[in-house]
Design brief:
The structure is a single chain. By secondary structure, this protein is α/β, with parallel strands linked by helices. The chain has two domains: 249 residues, Spore Coat Polysaccharide Biosynthesis Protein SpsA, Chain A, CATH 3.90.550; 35 residues, no CATH class. 34% of the residues lie in helices and 11% in strands. It is built from eleven helices and eight strands. The strands form two sheets. A five-stranded mixed β-sheet has the order 3-2-1-4-6, with helices on both faces. A three-stranded mixed β-sheet has the order 5-8-7.
């Protein structure tokens, strides 16, 4: 039986009570937890005291103010990776949100990754040319996509640049993937080693959270280690294969908007129990606390 260790990298911004339950469900002797709490959050690390018995819990400082669509998401992710790689060597680094929950026991997750060493787990998306302008044209306010005025200015400025054919990042082959990943120690350290390049490329782009990691992977030798569920899973396990790349269940079919996936509710219990994923997002105790409590009780048995 493998004794390899895993690191969870957690981007948290709200709901400390729900976050405590997440950490409690991840608590395991083979797992360490690394948490970045958004600088705008109304709580700090003290709200999570005593939530774990087995896992070491580390908090990233200084805290970064993270804005939707901003390069700050990339910077917070890199801060988590740097903190974890400084602490030690882990077989895998799993990025999750504070609004995610596991839907299978941690022993089952660990056994799966023990059986698939050296693979990089990203859910790659088909290249969408209409998104490329976010990374080919200079963004004046890279943290401003979520705000009406700065987003308006960004779009107007981009329109001028497009009309004048003034572009940036001309020679880079961009790729898209879901933000959430599970990567090996070798690739995690490669990512950290490319921090200056990532800053240069993405600091004046928009919504880079779904682009910086797959672009780096695709343009590196680690591209050949990308997990392919059609090869590495038994056929009877390969339900909805094209969505299994990062082993996270996200329901966009019922999402409230293009920015927000479906928030799971108590009525989704059978669905959550039937899918071949290890994690699901998202959950929100303000929308439905019952499903969170039921998962917590089920997985803590």
């Amino acid at each position: 039986m493998s004794s390899g260790r895993h690191a969870y990298l957690i981007l948290a911004h709200a709901q400390p009570g729900q976050l405590r339950k997440l950490l409690g469900l991840l608590d395991h002797p083979r797992i360490d937890l690394f948490v970045h709490i958004d600088a705008k959050a109304g709580f700090d690390a003290s709200a999570l005291d005593g939530c774990c018995k087995h896992s070491a819990v580390h908090f990233v400082e200084p805290r970064i103010s993270v804005n939707w669509g901003g390069v700050s998401i990339m910077r917070a992710t890199l801060a988590l990776l740097k903190e974890a790689t400084r602490e030690g060597h882990y077989d895998f680094y799993h990025l999750v949100s504070g609004m995610d929950l596991p839907i299978k026991p941690q022993d089952e997750m660990l056994a799966f990754f023990d059986a698939h060493p050296g693979q990089e787990f990203l859910k790659m998306w088909p290249f969408e040319a209409q998104r490329e302008s976010r990374f080919r044209y200079f963004t004046l306010f890279p943290e401003g996509r979520h705000f009406f005025l700065t987003n308006l200015i960004n779009n107007m400025f981009k329109g001028i640049l497009m009309a004048l054919h003034i572009r940036i990042n001309r020679d880079i082959e961009f790729r898209f993937a879901a933000q959430w990943f599970s990567i090996t120690d070798d690739f995690a350290r490669h990512v950290i080693g490319q921090e200056a390049w990532l800053e240069k490329v993405f600091r004046h782009t928009s919504t880079c959270d779904e682009v910086f990691m797959p672009t780096l992977l695709w343009n590196s030798p680690f591209r050949d280690r990308l997990f392919d569920p059609t090869i590495h899973l038994e056929r009877e396990q390969a339900v909805d294969e094209e969505h299994l790349g990062n082993l996270r269940f996200i329901d966009w079919t019922r999402g409230e908007s293009i920015r927000h996936p479906w928030t799971f509710r108590a009525d989704d219990w059978d669905l959550l129990m039937s899918v071949p994923y290890f994690w699901a997002r998202k959950f929100d105790e303000r929308v439905d606390a019952e499903i969170i409590d039921r998962l917590y009780d089920y997985l803590r048995r």
